[in-house]
Write a structure and sequence with these properties.
alpha+beta, Ubiquitin-like (UB roll), Fumarate Reductase Iron-sulfur Protein, Chain B, domain 2, 5-stranded mixed beta sheet, globular
């Protein structure tokens, strides 16, 4: 039987000692999960090893840890796969998840970070008026729209390695954002606009995401939290025209307008256009304040060569720019914005080939908004 070496990070705040790693050798078949090996080490070698677990079937989301530096569910990661990603090809490093305080060994305090952020998005349905006399039958396509966000098991794996949360601990985070879309996309909810206004205007809300894709890569249930954040932005700007205090709306609009005009990103225009539209917009006192505050960023761009004086004075259009404009015209001509839920499989996926799922309520998108550019006939942008 194969022998696997587990290098487990140990830490007990009560001891006053710093964290350290302890090695345990476990004989076990390679098709068994890492969690089984940890529990075997605890049962046979050291009963003080602390790890949170329950269902052992990737349903409860309790056993999130870092395995060889990457967040994952210990019950959903096979030993043979874990050793294949080990730095030395032999020793499996197991640590607690990041971005949350450690209670002991592999157990982190989910209440201190994750659940507080979930509470911020009001994670329950806000009904409109009195309950209906009969059951409220939700359209099938509406529930398909929120299926992906409903798959979240709140394991905290996406929270663990969120780069935006590392930079700003107050960032609402990927898991809470996915939970927010579950209710924003539900046609029974009466607080959709209020939710979006709050999430858009919160300095640590949906516009604080830096699109690192880490949450998409590590989610064990395919929720793709970053996609849900992008959908929240599209609902806020495209459906409700919410012009947030964080310049998120103007930044998206500036970005899309620049691509439409040149086909490539005009770095020198993106920053000023994000703070004010046109010359009059840039003369606004708030825009002036933001532009002055962004001077260090502009100087760093010049120093690094990312922005050069020739590029500022003359930005070259993409060869074949008309093809880009054709895409824009095709999307702008739509009467409704199309959202394709890439999580759907089986019968629902077959249905969607002929009838894509529209955004909840199928509200018309503002053609001038960045959120209007969300899909083509063939798929999602």
């Amino acid at each position: 039987m194969p022998n696997y070496t587990l290098n487990i990070r140990r830490f007990s705040p009560e001891s006053g000692e710093p964290a350290y790693f302890e090695t345990f050798d476990v004989e076990m078949e390679g098709h068994r999960p890492v969690l089984d090996a940890i529990l075997e080490a605890r049962a046979a070698q050291d009963g003080s090893i602390a790890i949170r677990c329950s269902c052992q079937a990737a349903i409860c989301g309790s056993c999130g840890v870092r395995i060889n530096g990457n967040p994952a569910l210990a019950c959903n990661t096979l030993l043979r796969d874990a050793v294949a990603t080990a730095d030395d090809g032999v020793t499996i490093d197991i640590e607690p998840m990041g971005n949350m305080p450690v209670i002991k060994d592999l157990i982190v305090d989910m209440d201190a970070v994750h659940w507080k952020k979930v509470d911020r998005v009001v994670p329950w349905l806000v009904p409109a008026g009195d309950p209906p006399e009969r059951e409220y039958v939700v359209p099938h396509e509406a529930m398909v729209d929120v299926t992906q966000s409903m798959a979240c098991i709140h394991c905290g794996v996406c929270v663990s390695d969120c780069l935006s949360m590392e930079a700003d601990p107050e960032f609402i985070g990927p898991a809470a954002s996915a939970k927010a879309y579950r209710f924003v996309g539900d046609p029974r909810d009466a607080a959709t606009k209020d939710r979006l206004v709050h999430l858009a205007n919160d300095p640590s809300g949906i516009y604080d995401c830096t699109h690192c894709f880490k949450c998409v890569e590590v989610c064990p249930k395919g929720v793709a939290p970053m996609n849900q954040i992008m959908r929240l932005r599209r609902r806020a700007t495209g459906d409700y025209g919410i012009k947030d205090h964080n310049n998120g709306y103007r930044h998206e609009k500036a970005f899309v307008s620049i691509i439409e005009k040149w086909g490539t990103l005009h770095e020198a225009k993106l920053l000023p256009d994000s703070y004010g539209e046109g010359i009059i917009g840039k003369l606004n006192p708030d825009a002036q304040k933001n532009l002055i505050g962004s001077l260090p960023t502009a100087l760093r761009g010049l120093a690094s060569g990312k922005v050069t004086l020739p590029k500022v004075l003359h930005h070259h259009k993409l060869e074949g720019q008309q093809q880009v404009k054709d895409i824009y015209e095709k999307v702008h001509a739509r009467e409704e914005r199309i959202e394709l839920n890439l999580y759907i499989v089986g019968d629902d996926a077959d249905m969607l080939e002929d009838e894509p799922v529209a955004a909840a309520a199928a509200a018309p998108a503002d053609a001038s908004s960045a959120s209007a550019v969300t899909s083509t006939e063939e798929g999602v942008s």
